[in-house]
Design brief:
Layout lengths: L12 H17 L3 H31 L4 H29 L4 H8 L1 H13 L5 H19 L3 E3 L2 E3 L1 H8 L4 H39 L5 H8 L7 H30 L4 E2 L18 H15 L1 H12 L3 E2 L11 E5 L4 E5 L7 H18 L13 H14 L5 H4 L3 H31 L5 H15 L3 E2 L4 H4 L8 H5 L5 H19 L1 H14 L5 H7 L10 H12 L5
Parallel strand pairs: 3-7, 4-6
Antiparallel strand pairs: 1-2, 5-6
Helix pairs in contact: 1-2, 1-3, 2-3, 2-4, 3-5, 3-6, 5-9, 6-8, 7-8, 8-9, 10-16, 10-23, 11-12, 11-13, 12-13, 13-14, 14-20, 16-17, 16-20, 20-21, 20-23
This protein binds zinc ion.
Zinc ion binds next to helix 13 and helix 14.
Length: 560
């Protein structure tokens, strides 16, 4: 069914809660594992209906922020989501404590039960008011960022529209844009500090109420980190610092040389070439068409997927007034339909939508017939492997998008992917320090960030821009506010995607088969087990980061 024809009806939370209560009663009275499994199918139906309605409302709200109907629906979901999660977790608790656990584990998989255990620890009736307050705080931060009005060269822009100026090929324009962004952040930084301070205290209070030592432990549970812990992550950060930071410093030196500079300043953060970054050559419509052609050549599975997406109009990617910023992939279960939302703006970011977001969508599509929907609740460290690896698997088609500058694009893509890792890891360490020390003042938090910049990005000079020199850069990073501790997942996934890159350079078909196998595994097993099964090395383990740096060095054209 085409997206525009999908019907929408608001789910009523009061009757949903009653339905779930009834299911709980039926589960408690069930006489066998088989019977419980059957009742669980009714629960799955309820879940799918709810997720279908939620995603349709969410997408339609993003597609047109002036639509009053979906604005109300969106507010309604914001309000009821904690109640839905709570009811859902209560239901799962009954399954978790089932006398027929062995049979159910056999059918639903051990990871499902491990995640139920983590969920049960993560929520209680008592903390619902705190969770609602936390949601309100994130909305406050999001609103400040979304409604930013930045004066620049006689016009007013929001933050995302300032992006292209900050990456302009003319260094003077970049400098001015950077200053305008910095000035704007200086005008709101006290308020953002106040919001973040309240968030840290709120999240810490939630953790304490649930019996955790700190919010970090609670966040790990909420993110279903079921096969590694914070010590593994700390060991991973240590390896990034040791091996990736010096490697990226080499790349920064090479980039400065290419740009004709002695040293990179923050002005160059997103700039790779003196003549500007390569942009796609075609119109938005042509980009989608080239994408369809590319996926029809890559494999039979990707062809089927992309044809389905186009036929059912599951892309909303062209820029339009009143459309929400950003881009994402989501899934509408009742119609077995992935959906991709974005705002094409003529930069290489448009191609990332076709590679990265389509990678997420592809994984959803090929597992759409999996009856056990719990298999879809894998962590982002797994999900981002599907998307980031697709970026590499499609390297061979970039000529169709970038014309004669396709080599520049590939150089930029790999350099950018490598350059991201120290930053992503720094964002993680920052949050660990913040939540280990919830009593820190806003000024102390900025000092922490400044210190981390020196450790992770010594090759960039931040002193020229007031807000960055103050240690405020992290206030731009919405994940720190909206989805705490999520960020390292990108880094972990990136290390795996880079392993696929190395693998495909040796044997493309073989690497593709392994990738497909990983996609199909979905979340049926633990992260560490699944990646090992398809021949990837676990990023936390000693030596893995070192080895990947060794393999990437010649590919990224480092001078060393
Ligand atoms: Zn992604």
């Amino acid at each position: 069914m085409k997206f525009k024809d999908m019907p929408y009806e608001r789910p009523d939370i009061n009757s949903l809660e009653k339905e779930i209560e009834k299911l709980i009663e039926r589960q408690k009275n069930a006489k066998s594992g088989e019977e419980q499994f059957k009742i669980n199918k009714d629960f799955y139906k309820l879940r799918k209906d709810f997720e279908t309605a939620y995603n349709i409302a969410y997408i339609r709200h993003d597609a047109d922020n002036t639509d009053e109907f979906y604005e109300k629906e969106n507010d309604y979901f914001d309000e009821i989501l904690p109640r839905w999660s709570n009811a859902y977790i209560k239901y799962n608790k009954v399954l978790f404590e089932s006398p027929y656990r062995e049979y159910l584990e056999e059918k639903l998989g051990p990871v499902t039960f491990k995640n139920m255990e983590l969920d049960a620890k993560s929520i209680s009736d008592e903390i619902l008011p705190l969770m609602q307050e936390e949601n309100a705080l994130t909305s406050r931060y999001d609103k400040i960022i979304a409604t930013a009005k930045i004066e620049f060269e006689g016009e007013t822009y929001n933050l995302s529209l300032m992006g292209p100026f900050a990456r302009n090929k003319d260094r003077n324009i970049r400098k001015k844009a950077n200053k305008a962004i910095s000035d704007w952040f200086m005008s709101v930084t006290d308020e953002i500090d106040e919001i973040y301070d309240a968030m840290v205290k709120n999240r810490t209070a939630q953790a304490k109420a649930l019996g955790f030592e700190s919010f970090t432990d609670l966040a790990y549970c909420r993110m279903h980190r079921n096969s590694y812990d914070k010590n593994d992550v700390a060991n991973f950060r240590k390896q990034i610092k040791e091996h990736f930071v010096p490697f990226v410093a080499e790349l920064a030196e090479k980039r400065a040389e290419r740009l004709g500079l002695d040293k990179l300043e923050d002005t160059e953060l997103g700039v790779y070439f003196k003549e500007g970054n390569p942009n796609p050559t075609g119109s938005p419509e042509e980009i989608l068409k080239s994408g369809q052609k590319m996926y029809s050549e890559l494999s039979a599975e990707t062809k089927e997927y992309m044809d389905f997406m186009m036929e059912n109009e599951l892309f909303d990617v062209f820029g339009r007034k009143n459309k929400a910023a950003g881009g994402y992939q989501t899934y509408i279960p009742n119609y077995e339909s992935p959906f991709i939302f974005a705002n094409f703006n003529g930069t290489s970011g448009d191609i990332d939508v076709i590679t990265h977001e389509c990678g997420h969508g592809f994984q959803c599509f090929i597992t759409r017939k999996d009856e056990i929907i719990d298999h879809n609740s894998f962590g982002m460290e797994t999900a981002e492997i599907h998307s980031m690896s697709m970026e590499y698997f499609t390297y061979g088609w970039m000529k169709n998008f970038f014309g004669e500058r396709y080599k520049d694009y590939l150089e930029m893509h790999l350099e950018d992917a490598c350059t991201f890792l120290p930053y992503g890891t720094m964002v993680d360490e920052f949050q660990h320090i913040v939540y280990d020390n919830p009593e820190m003042t806003p000024a102390q938090r900025k000092e922490v960030w400044k210190k981390l910049e020196v450790e992770y990005r010594p090759y960039i000079e931040f002193e020229g821009t007031e807000f960055f020199a103050l240690g405020g850069f992290w206030q731009k990073q919405l994940h720190i506010f909206d989805v705490p501790f999520y960020y390292i997942d990108y880094v972990l996934a990136s290390i795996c995607a880079m392993q696929f890159k190395v693998m495909m350079d040796e044997n493309f078909e073989g690497a593709w088969d392994k990738y497909l196998e990983l996609c199909k595994l979905s979340g049926s097993d633990y992260y560490t087990k699944m990646i090992s099964q398809v021949g990837l090395k676990i990023p936390f383990n000693d030596g893995v980061v070192k080895e990947i740096v060794k393999k990437l060095r010649p590919l990224a054209g480092s001078n060393k």
